[in-house]
Amino acid sequence: MGERIESHRDLRVWKQTYELALSVLRVAGTFPKSEQFALTSQCRRSAISIPSNIAEGYGRGSTMDYLRFLKIARGSLFELDTQLLIAADLGYLSPTDAKTLQELWTDCSKMLSGLIRSLEK
Question: Which of 9, 55, 74, 92 fits a disulfide with 87 by CB distance 3.0 to 4.6 angstroms?
Answer without folding.
Answer: 92
